[in-house]
């Protein structure tokens, strides 16, 4: 394995001065191998949530609990995930991304196998907490390891691939979950996670070196500098709008518009494909023009789509709806790579574990807030007027909160002085 070190940036502003260097130099194969292994590990976490969700009605029937109770299968997982994230980020910086990721993936596979054998619902919840702890370990390790082979000026391209893989994983989860549940029962969904976890374990063990950060640096100040705070805010708002909008769409299309679950899912799959298509574009734009450009464009495109859909009288289940979902999907996709690139380039490599953990915590918080607000808005019933109002609120958030947060990210800078 090559011992080539990865250039480090103390701040995102310095990365702007280097943005034009090395663009024509091919990266070593091991950089892409690391990215592939870490992306696969992160995709496993995305698949897990959607794979399990599809099986929950069968879990309720088989283990003798109410359908409403099965929501705790998700909440226990995400609560454990969130609680472990920040300490896990510090462990990544102290002991290397490889070691923490391997521990997390081993624990994840054990938790999945135990879940598949669960005799009671309570035991299942315990296994989901174990998997949540594992996910909290893997998440910051995978992101820190993914960019460890890329110089700061090329990380956008890597993170664009990372974002696209997340979109594909979110597509694969429900499809695979539905097939497994119908063909083999709910336990098959948990069993499927075991070989996936072991494959991800093998990939990290084989391709990510112990010193995944390259050159080891002393911590240079706090993780929470201005750019990281802005990037975390962008990440949180992105997930709040995305999860809240997805929840509203799923509920409205099934309960008010009469769509089948499959038909409603097809709409969300369409948006997820757009997100996956836009993520690599955002990565390239970030490398060429700084993170501010794609982030601002992303919020404005999302605001356009949800804003028009929020106008009273605009159809929420017709052809026009599909057209207006295009800027929503593309806009959300433009927001993934810039946030991670800005935050990681704004901190030294020795703090990338903690930086990744802060970003993940922001995303989880945003997802929880988005789902909570959307759910609270629909407590009085699912109707077009309520959905229109919430979408207008999402538009306002994108314009008046999202754009200012995006302006905190780094713009492109003319190379006027040597990088020190």
Question: Topology, pairings included?
Answer:
Blueprint: H1 12-17, H2 29-63, H3 71-95, H4 97-116, H5 121-146, H6 155-184, H7 187-207, H8 226-255, H9 261-289, H10 292-309, H11 319-333, H12 336-345, H13 352-377, H14 384-406
What is this structure, in a nutshell?
With 420 residues, this protein is an all-alpha fold. The chain has helices at 12-17, 29-63, 71-95, 97-116, 121-146, 155-184, 187-207, 226-255, 261-289, 292-309, 319-333, 336-345, 352-377, 384-406.
Distance between the termini: 28 Å
Mean pLDDT: 84
Radius of gyration equals: 21 Å
User: Helix amount, in percent?
Assistant: over 70%
Q: What form results from the Cα inertia axes?
A: globular
Largest sheet geometry: none
CATH topology of the largest domain: Growth Hormone, Chain: A
Relative strand content: under 5%
Number of helices: 14
CATH-defined superfamily of the largest domain: MFS general substrate transporter like domains
Task: Work out the count of structural domains.
Answer: 2
Q: Would you state the CATH class of the largest domain?
A: Mainly Alpha
What is the helix/strand order? HHHHHHHHHHHHHH
Number of strands: 0
Coarse structural class: mainly alpha
Low-confidence stretches: 1-22, 212-219, 413-420
The CATH architecture classification of the largest domain is: Up-down Bundle
Write structural notes for this entry:
With 420 residues, this protein is an all-alpha fold. The chain has 2 domains: 30-152 and 169-216, MFS general substrate transporter like domains (Growth Hormone, Chain: A), CATH 1.20.1250.20; 223-412, Growth Hormone, Chain: A (Up-down Bundle), CATH 1.20.1250.20. The chain has 14 helices and no strands. The protein has helices at 12-17, 29-63, 71-95, 97-116, 121-146, 155-184, 187-207, 226-255, 261-289, 292-309, 319-333, 336-345, 352-377, 384-406. Helix 9 (261-289) packs across helix 12 (336-345). The protein is globular and about 55 Å long. The model is unreliable at 1-22, 212-219 and 413-420 (pLDDT under 50).
């Amino acid at each position: 394995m090559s011992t080539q070190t990865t250039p480090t940036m103390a701040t995102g502003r310095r990365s702007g001065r280097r943005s034009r260097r090395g663009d024509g130099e091919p990266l070593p194969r091991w950089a892409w191998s690391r990215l592939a292994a870490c992306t696969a590990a992160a995709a496993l976490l995305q698949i897990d949530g959607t794979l399990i969700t599809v099986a929950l009605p069968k879990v309720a029937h088989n283990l003798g609990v109410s359908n409403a109770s099965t929501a705790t299968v998700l909440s226990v997982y995400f609560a454990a995930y969130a609680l472990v994230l920040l300490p896990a980020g510090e462990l990544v910086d102290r002991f290397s991304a490889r070691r923490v990721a391997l521990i997390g993936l081993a624990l994840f596979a054990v938790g999945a196998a135990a879940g598949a054998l669960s005799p009671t619902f309570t035991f299942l919840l315990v296994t989901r907490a174990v998997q949540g702890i594992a996910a909290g370990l893997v998440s910051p390790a995978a992101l820190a390891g993914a960019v460890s082979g890329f110089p700061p000026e090329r990380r956008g391209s890597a993170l664009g691939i990372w974002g696209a893989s997340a979109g594909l994983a979110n597509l694969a989860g429900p499809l695979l979950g539905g097939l497994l549940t119908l063909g083999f029962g709910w336990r098959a969904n948990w069993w499927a996670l075991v070989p996936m976890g072991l494959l991800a374990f093998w990939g990290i063990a084989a391709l990510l070196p112990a010193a995944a950060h390259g050159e080891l640096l002393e911590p240079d100040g706090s993780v929470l500098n201005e750019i990281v705070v802005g990037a975390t805010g962008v990440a949180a708002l992105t997930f709040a709008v995305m999860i809240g909008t997805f929840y509203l769409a799923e509920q409205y299309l099934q309960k008010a518009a009469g769509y089948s679950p499959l038909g409603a899912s097809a709409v969300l799959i369409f948006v997820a494909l757009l997100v996956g298509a836009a993520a690599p574009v955002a990565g390239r734009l970030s490398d060429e023009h700084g993170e501010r450009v794609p982030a601002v464009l992303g919020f404005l495109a999302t605001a356009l789509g949800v804003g028009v859909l929020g106008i009273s009288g605009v159809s929420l289940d017709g052809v026009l709806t599909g057209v207006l979902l295009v800027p929503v999907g593309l806009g959300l996709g433009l927001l993934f790579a810039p946030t991670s690139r800005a935050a990681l380039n704004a901190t030294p490599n020795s703090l990338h574990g903690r930086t990744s953990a802060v970003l993940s915590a922001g995303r989880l918080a945003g997802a929880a807030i988005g789902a909570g607000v959307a759910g609270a808005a629909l407590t009085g019933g699912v109707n077009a007027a309520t959905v229109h109002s919430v979408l207008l609120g999402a538009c306002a958030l994108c314009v008046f909160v999202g754009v200012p947060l995006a302006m905190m990210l780094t713009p492109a800078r003319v190379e006027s002085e040597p990088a020190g």
